[in-house]
UniProtKB/TrEMBL annotation:
Family matches, as CDD domains: PBP2_MetR
Gene designation per UniProt: metR
Example of a GO cellular component annotation carried by this entry: cytoplasm
Main localization, broad class: cytoplasm
Organism: Vibrio ezurae NBRC 102218
Family of the protein in this entry: Belongs to the LysR transcriptional regulatory family.
Pfam family, one: LysR_substrate
Keywords, alphabetical: Activator, Amino-acid biosynthesis, Cytoplasm, DNA-binding, Methionine biosynthesis, Repressor, Transcription, Transcription regulation
UniProt keyword Iron, yes or no: no
Record protein name field: HTH-type transcriptional regulator MetR
Occurrences of domain HTH lysR-type (ranges): 2-59
InterPro entries: LysR_HTH_N, LysR_subst-bd, MetR_PBP2, WH-like_DNA-bd_sf, WH_DNA-bd_sf
Length: 294
C-alpha cells in the first residue's frame, strides 16, 4: 500500500511546511506532490492533512504516516550506506609521490586504520610511472601530491601547507647565513632522493629560476640516511619542515629558509566521482587535524 515515495513526500511536507516548499526541496513539481498525497489518501482511505491551513496541520492518520516515515527512511538510508561500504569496497589504497611524506603519513594511516577497522588500508609509492592513470583505473583511491593538474576527471583536495628548508650540519659554512640564495649551493653537494631533478621543488622553484646548479648532485634512497649524511657533512639537502623536525630537535642539524621562503601545499588527489566519499572525507579531515601545526 505505502511506497517510499509517499513516505518521502509526506516527510518533506512536514519538514518544509507547504507543498510549494516541499516540491522545491525534493526537486519535483507541485502537481507531482499533490498527486502523490492524493494517491496515498485514496489508498489509506483517510485524509492526511487539513487543506487551506497555515501552517499545515496533519490529521491523526497523517501523523501516523509521518512517524512511520521518520522511523523507516533513516533505516533505509543507513542500510544503503552500509551496502555501499560493503566488503566488496573495503580496499582503500593510498599512494604518494613524496619520499619524505612517510614521516607524517604513517601515524595518520595508523589512526585511520584504528578508526575504520573494516577497511583494508594499503600504502604504495607513486614513484613509478603514470600514478594518476592508475588512480583513474581504480588501482589507487587517494594520491598524495604537491603537484596540481587542471583535469576534469581528477579532484585535488587541499591538506596542509609546508615550507621547504635547506638542511645542513651544525658546523656547515652556510650556517652563518640567515637565508640561502641559489648561488650559495654552487660550492656544495646537494643530497636528493633518486628522482629526476625536473620533478624537484628545489630545482624548479629555487635553482632553475636563478640559473644555478649545486657543485654536485648526490642521490640517497631514504630520509633517515639522507639526514644522517647531512649531519655528517656529506652535503646539504632541501626538505619539508616535518621531515627534519626530529633531527633538529636533537640539535643534530641546522636549517635555513631558501631565499624569501618556499611555501608548498599537499593535496589528496581523487577521482571526481569519489570526492564526497565518506572514507576519503574522513581521511582528509584526520590528516588536517593531525598535521595542523605545519
Amino acid at each position: 500500500m505505502l511506497e517510499l515515495k509517499h513516505l518521502r513526500t509526506i516527510q518533506g511536507l512536514a519538514k518544509f511546511g507547504s507543498i510549494a516548499a516541499c516540491a522545491e526541496n525534493l526537486h519535483i513539481t507541485q502537481s507531482a506532490i499533490s498527486h502523490q498525497l492524493k494517491e496515498l489518501e485514496v489508498r489509506i482511505g483517510a485524509q492526511l492533512f487539513y487543506r487551506k491551513t497555515k501552517p499545515i496541520k496533519f490529521t491523526s492518520q497523517g501523523q501516523v504516516v509521518i512517524a512511520l516515515a521518520d522511523n523507516v527512511l533513516p533505516q533505509i538510508a543507513a542500510a544503503e550506506k552500509q551496502l555501499t561500504h560493503s566488503d566488496l569496497n573495503s580496499r582503500f589504497t593510498l599512494a604518494i609521490d613524496c619520499h619524505s611524506c612517510f614521516q607524517w603519513l604513517l601515524p595518520t594511516i595508523k589512526q585511520f586504520q584504528n578508526t575504520f577497522s573494516c577497511l583494508d588500508v594499503d600504502l604504495e609509492s607513486g614513484f613509478h610511472q603514470h600514478p594518476l592513470e592508475r588512480l583513474l583505473a581504480g588501482e589507487i583511491d587517494v594520491m598524495i601530491t604537491s603537484d596540481v593538474e587542471s583535469r576534469g576527471d581528477l579532484y585535488f583536495i587541499p591538506l596542509f601547507g609546508y615550507e621547504l628548508q635547506l638542511v645542513m650540519s651544525n658546523d656547515h659554512p652556510l650556517v652563518s647565513k640567515k637565508s640561502i640564495q641559489a648561488s650559495d649551493l654552487a660550492a656544495h653537494a646537494l643530497l636528493t632522493y633518486p628522482v629526476d631533478k625536473r620533478r624537484m621543488d628545489v630545482y624548479n622553484l629555487f635553482l632553475k629560476p636563478s640559473g644555478c646548479e649545486p657543485l654536485k648532485w648526490k642521490t640517497v634512497d631514504n630520509t633517515s640516511t639522507l639526514l644522517q649524511m647531512v649531519s655528517g657533512s656529506f652535503g646539504v639537502a632541501a626538505l619539508p619542515e616535518w621531515a627534519v623536525r626530529t633531527f633538529e630537535n636533537q640539535d643534530l642539524i641546522a636549517t635555513r629558509p631558501l631565499g624569501d621562503g618556499i611555501r608548498r601545499h599537499l593535496y589528496a588527489c581523487v577521482r571526481v566521482a569519489d570526492k564526497e566519499n565518506d572514507y576519503i572525507q574522513a581521511f582528509v579531515d584526520m590528516t588536517r587535524e593531525m598535521n595542523a601545526s605545519h
